[in-house]
Amino acid sequence: MNIFMIGGTGLLGCEAAIQLIKQGHKVTSVALPPLPEGAPIPEEMAIEFGDINKRSDEEILEMLKGNDVFIFAAGVDERVEFPAPVMDAYKKFNIAPLERMFPLCKQAGIKKAVVLGSYFSYLAKIRPDMQCTQRNPYIKSRILQEEVCEKFADDDFAVTVLELPYIFGTQPGRRPVWTILIEQIAGMDKLPFTMYPKGGTAMLTCRQVGEVIAGAATNDDKGFHAYPISMYNMKWNEFLGYVYDARGMKNRKIVGIPPFVMKMGMGGIVKEYAKKGIESGIDPYHLPYIMDYDLFINADYAKSLGATEDDIVEAITDSIKVSVASYNGTVKLLEMKAE
Questions:
Q1: Chain centroid to CA 186: how far?
Q2: This prediction's pTM
Q3: In which region does residue 78 sit, left (phi positive, over 0), alpha (psi from -120 to 50) or beta (all else)?
């Protein structure tokens, strides 16, 4: 099969390309430069550098010609900061590209699309009582993204959204998103313990994401599907234990706190955002309630799409060690970016 991907040089797109090429498929990607130094980008993947959003429809149709599958491994998540209203940015980077690309894919004869989404969509659907879409622009944007995918899907054009949870693993030369976590918990290092929510999260490694993307791209699904994806479920205190081990702070005491306690500490963040003119994609006053919940996902969907066992503790350790180096300024890495 011939695969066309947006974002093939990123952490997850690259892993997908590795898996697809290993299976004998041809992968072409358009990606934003520069390449992260030392990243294991497959030599067999054809790369065209540039912003596809700035290409004409005619140019994009020429790129899509002869391909069977379209993969959208780009976009932004809630950790990338934008000025208010943040929904404008989510529409620009996560929704509008699909509204434009899907009709062009159909015109070019492409039969399937795979979109990397978020497990916050899964949360919004299984817990409507939490009012996630009403309180959090990012979660609302991911639901809107899925609605666009469903709108364009039909018997001749299958669209699969992978609702991805927290992902661990590193790409040489690229700053891990977990540097943000190090920034957050470092402020408690002088305390005798770390205070953190009592809930937990689903997770998987970046290699497993690549396997799932490849599986979704090559299976025989028809119509629209949104799959919640996970291989492991872990409480926050267990996860932080591995984080502190990687930081050289073994046996750090973690104290679970209820949402109202965490909420009291969010005032400073809200004021900082207001001062910088930034609107958070996740409401800081709602985040404590989200993190108090065990957002766990059964591994059946991931396994059915081809995910195989991996060492999640090793992946967490690697992610945190590189994040610490980035936080300390001992390495220079490419940042997350929108364009």
A1: 24
A2: 0.94
A3: alpha
Share in percent of the chain as helix, strand, coil (round to 5): 45, 20, 35
Sheet holding 2-6, edge to edge: 46-49, 26-31, 2-6, 69-72, 112-118, 158-164, 224-228
CA 178 distance to own-chain centroid: 12
Alpha helices for 91-175 (secondary structure H): 96-108, 119-126, 132-135, 137-152
* Buried residues in 178-192 as b, exposed as e (16+ CB within 10 A): bbebbeebeeeeeee
Query: Alpha-carbon torsion 230, 231, 237, 239, what sign?
Result: negative
Q: What are phi and psi of 200, to 5 degrees?
A: -160, 180
| Residue linked to tokens 């965490």 | 262
Distance CA 136, CA 68 (A): 35
Contact indicator for 100, 148 with CB cutoff of 8 Å: no
Q: Is 174 helix (H, G, I), strand (E, B) or coil?
A: strand
Of all helices (H) and strands (E), which one includes residue 70?
Answer: strand 69-72
What is d(CA 116, CA 165) in angstroms, rounded to the nearest whole number? 10
pLDDT in tens, 18-62: 999 999 999 999 988 887 777 889 999 999 998 898 999 999 999
- Give the Cα separation of 231 and 205 in Å (integer): 8
Tell me: pLDDT of 338 over 50.
no
Nearest to 270 by CA among 278, 260, 261: 278
Q: How far apart are CA 157 and CA 212, in angstroms?
A: 19
The dihedral of CA 168, 43, 7, 5: what is its sign? negative
Rounded Cα distance between 170 and 322, Å, is 8
